[in-house]
Amino acid sequence: MAETMTLTTVLIDISTISTLLFVGFLIRQKIPFFYKYYIPTSLIAGILGLLLGPQVLGQFSPIHLHFSQWISQWTNFLFAFIFTTSFLGTSTGKFGRDVLSTTCVTGAVFMAQVLAGLGIAFLLSKFMSNVPYAMGFLPVSGFYGGHGSAGIMGGCFATEGWEDATGIALTYATIGMFMAVIGGMWIINWGAKKGYTRKQMSSVNLDQKDITGIVPKEERKSMATAISSSSVIDPLAFQMMIVGTIIAISHILREAIIKVFPFWSKIPLYTMCLIMGAIIGIALSKTKYSQYIDRGSMKRISGVALEYVIAMNVATIKLSVLASFLVPILVTSIAITILTAVICIILAKKWYGKDWFEMAMGAYGQCTGSLATGLLLIKVLDPNGDTLAAESVSGSSTLGSFWQQPYNTIGPMLILSSPLLTTLGTAGFLVAFLIVGTVLFGRTVKKA
């Protein structure tokens, strides 16, 4: 009997993830490795869910955690809240420059990943007959775009006759998520030793709150500021009302655009939420109505959604897709991970200025896993949201969709029909991003 989605199904999924978060929180206090390397509770919870779920424990025991088939839809749902709140209640003084410089970094990474994938596929094809040149196009869909993008590009390849492409692309997305978090944590600790981080990350002098996860009473601060009177409407409900209204506007506008331009259906709702949130947030910041938005509340709404997104994504990673094309996938994954880290660190330091390392790690997380993993790494470095790194990376993610989506949808057809032209075109885009970044941001940047 096919499973149907009900509100009870949703409630059980949320309660399961909540329980995993609670257990992960307790485990983090007891195992030095987790707090020494600043492993967040949401990642621990996700790994627990993966191990105790149907893919691992379920293979040996009839008693295991069960997730509904609808849980993957929660990622896009929660992204709508994360993206809508990105620019609400925040000063817009540096948004233009920060977002554009970050976009140049991530744009260069995107094109470099495509070229690296194609280059490695070309070399491996000389030794492995089952590796087509077009396989080099798949890593960027999984690393830069995550599972959603990987599914889109893989599906487009499938329509062109390559059925295995979807599984390979999803495998890259799975590996990319692990590379993003594990590699990101290693780079963060390396950066802390170099003195690149705003926050002191030394595990030798850990604060008690970093170990237990509980802030001492004398150091506790208010999570938000009440804007509305509780006798009229709950203050948090007032802020949720604003967020929900912007999501509704985004949905209506997206549906209207799709009727005129059908290709806009490729743009997800959460991208529209980020666009509208940015437009409305920036516009309101110039008016007296900015007083109605509390940035603290927006951070908490976004923070809650992000914790659940991370735990859900890790807990439901598909292990079965790792079996196919294992050797070329591993070789390409390692090479692209290193390349991405090097580009993000070098270009961020040259172009971004203050808090460049926070942005570099956010860009690295986004370009190897997803925006969620990028925001996770930023959260480790900047738990209180004192920098504009999260907003910069979120903004660049939206701008990046304007070249990412064509590559995901039209790219498979082009790389199969005109491989040389597609490769040269990608190289041209890479050079363009490097030139624009150097000219606009390379000379005026103020080093931190």
Task: Give structural notes.
By secondary structure, this protein is an all-alpha fold. It has a single domain, classed as Na+/H+ antiporter like fold (Up-down Bundle). 68% of the residues lie in helices and 0% in strands. It has 18 helices and no strands. α5 runs antiparallel to α13, α8 packs parallel to α15 and α11 runs antiparallel to α16. The chain starts with 6 loop residues before the first helix and ends in a 6-residue tail after the last helix. The mean pLDDT is 83.
**What is the succession of H and E elements?**
HHHHHHHHHHHHHHHHHH
Total number of helices:
18
Count the E strands. Answer: 0
Structural class: mainly alpha
- Uncertain regions spanning at least 5 consecutive residues: none
User: What top-tier CATH class fits best?
Assistant: Mainly Alpha
| CA radius of gyration | 22 Å
Number of domains: 1
Report how far apart the termini are. Answer: 60 Å
Shape: globular
- Assembly context of the chains: single chain
**Amount of helix:** 55-70%
What is the CATH third-level topology name? Answer: Na+/H+ antiporter like fold
**What's the mean pLDDT score?**
83
Judging by the overall fold, what is the CATH architecture? Up-down Bundle
Attribute tags:
single chain, Na+/H+ antiporter like fold, 68% helix, globular
Fold blueprint:
Layout: H1 7-30, H2 32-36, H3 41-52, H4 73-84, H5 95-124, H6 138-143, H7 146-159, H8 165-194, H9 208-212, H10 235-260, H11 269-285, H12 295-315, H13 326-351, H14 356-368, H15 371-381, H16 389-409, H17 411-417, H18 419-442
Helix pairs in contact: 1-3, 3-12, 4-11, 4-12, 5-13, 5-14, 5-16, 5-18, 7-8, 7-16, 8-13, 8-14, 8-15, 10-11, 11-16, 13-14, 14-15, 14-16, 15-16, 17-18
